[in-house]
């Protein structure tokens, strides 16, 4: 299955109408095409791709809006003072086993919900919730130990 150049241009124009940004539009097109290719059983592939692009855009829009509200609530000065030490993060992640890193990645980076992770991993949601809680607590303790060294 492939899309014609005309289809891809149509997708890009649609994405650009949503984002008003070339790079973000390319990302949306990529996302939409990827979703279609992952589901070969979809009948109307063009409509499905555009729906995926639209959903992704509004998910990101909501996330950015929540971040702006968070910044407004906490103050921009606080955000500017926040700095992530890459070496510290790498050191902390090296202390976790692969299962813990995967769980943390799904939850913190991919933004999966506890229910989604439990379905994906085939685990009860209470187990996933408690594991994430323990990982966060362990990382907090490790960060405190590493900061005092």
- What proportion strand? under 5%
What distance lies between the first and last C-alpha atoms, to the nearest angstrom?
56 Å
> How many helices does DSSP assign?
8
pLDDT under 50 segments (min length 5)? none
> Tally of extended strands?
0
Query: Could you tell me the radius of gyration in angstroms?
Result: 20 Å
- Portion of residues within helices: over 70%
Mean pLDDT: 80
Q: What structural category do the secondary elements indicate? A: mainly alpha
Task: Work out the count of structural domains.
Answer: 2
Biggest beta-sheet profile: none
Oligomer: single chain
- In N-to-C order, the SSE pattern is HHHHHHHH
Q: Which geometry do the CA atoms define?
A: elongated
Describe the protein in words.
The chain has 149 residues and is an all-alpha fold. It has 2 domains: 74 residues; 65 residues, Winged helix-like DNA-binding domain superfamily/Winged helix DNA-binding domain (Arc Repressor Mutant, subunit A, Orthogonal Bundle). Helix content is 81%, strand content 0%. It has 8 helices and no strands. α2 packs across α3. The longest helix is centred in the middle third of the chain and has 30 residues. The protein starts with a helix and ends with a helix.
